[in-house]
Specification:
single chain, about 180 residues, alpha/beta, Nucleotidyltransferase, domain 5, 5-stranded mixed sheet
């Protein structure tokens, strides 16, 4: 696929205020990295829309444990709000695959105008080293802030989880997100 170009937000007309949220999926020896991208001006509304879908007592949304109805609902919210998705896969051991995926995804995020990247907590040290290496390789070390968060802290990670699950699952689930793919 072609490398994506910066996208302009229809709401604020900015191409340099993108925020991204990442999660991974592993199925049958294939590791995938899904990153949802949206303009920073839409984050408050999106977080509220996702939180409003939680059931009483539920702290987070997890696509693998959700009903088909709830998965479809989350994907509909994503589609209706202009969220974009970057998804790459690698067939390698998960740790090596994740580092390789960051080297592919980070340059795409920089070209899209992403200034902040939030990653689900997990392999913090390995992620940070791989992201820093990718930024260094494209001379963009100061153009992207990144941090880890837990899903109950950051509802936008639920969108990344949904994208990772659907694209990893394939079939009609992946087809629902294809129109959102950025490259």
């Amino acid at each position: 696929m072609a490398t994506p170009r910066a996208i302009h937000c229809a709401r604020c007309n900015s191409a340099r205020r993108q925020a991204a949220f990442a999660d991974e999926t592993t199925r049958a020896g294939l590791t995938g990295l899904a990153v949802v991208v949206t303009c920073s001006c839409q984050l408050t509304g999106l977080r509220r829309a996702f939180r409003d879908q939680l059931r009483p007592g539920q702290r987070r949304f997890h696509a693998a444990k959700a009903s088909d109805r709830d998965r479809k609902l989350f994907m509909s919210i994503m589609a209706s709000t202009g969220i974009g998705v970057v998804f790459e896969t690698c067939r390698d051991q998960p740790v090596a695959a994740r580092a390789q995926l960051w080297s592919i995804v980070v340059p795409k995020l920089v070209k899209l105008g992403v200034v902040e990247l939030v990653i689900e907590r997990g392999e913090q040290q390995r992620d940070l080293a791989a992201i820093e290496r990718a930024l260094f390789d494209i001379s963009a070390i100061d153009r992207l802030r990144y941090r880890h968060a837990t899903p109950h802290e950051e509802p936008m990670l639920w969108a990344a989880d949904t994208a990772a699950w659907a694209l990893g699952k394939g079939g009609h689930w992946a087809d629902r997100l294809r129109p959102l793919m950025l490259g």
